Amino acid sequence: MPRSLGSAVLASFAGLVCLFLVLPSLIVVPMSFNADTLLRFPPQGFSTTWYQAYFDQENWRSATWHSLAIAASVTILATALGTIAALALIRGRIALRNLFIYIMLTPMIVPPIVSAVSMYGVFAQFRLVGTLPGMVLAHTVLALPFVIINVAAVLQRMDWRVEQAARSLGASALKAFFLVTLPMIRPGLIVAAIFAFITSFDEVVVALYISGSSAITLPVEMWSGLRFEINPVVAAVSSLLLGISVASLLTISLLRRLTSAERRASA
Amino acid sequence: MTAGSTIGGEIRLAGLSRSFGAIHAVRDVDLIATRGEFLTLLGASGSGKTTTLMMIAGFVTPSAGDILVDGASIVRQPPDKRNLGVVFQSYALFPHMTVAENIAFPLRMRHLGRAEAQERAQSALAMVQLEGYGGRRVTELSGGQQQRVALARALVFRPPVLLMDEPLGALDRKLREQMQLEIKRIQKSLGITVIYVTHDQEEALILSDRIAIMHEGEVHQIGTPDAVYERPSTPYVASFLGESNFLDGVLESKEVGTSWVRLASGERIGAQRTGFTVGSRVRAMVRPESIALVAPSGSEAINALPAEIEVCEYLGQSIRYFARGGGTTLTVRAPRAEAARRAAVGEQVTLHWPQSETLLFG
Question: Closest residue of A to B155, CA-based?
Answer without folding.
Answer: A169
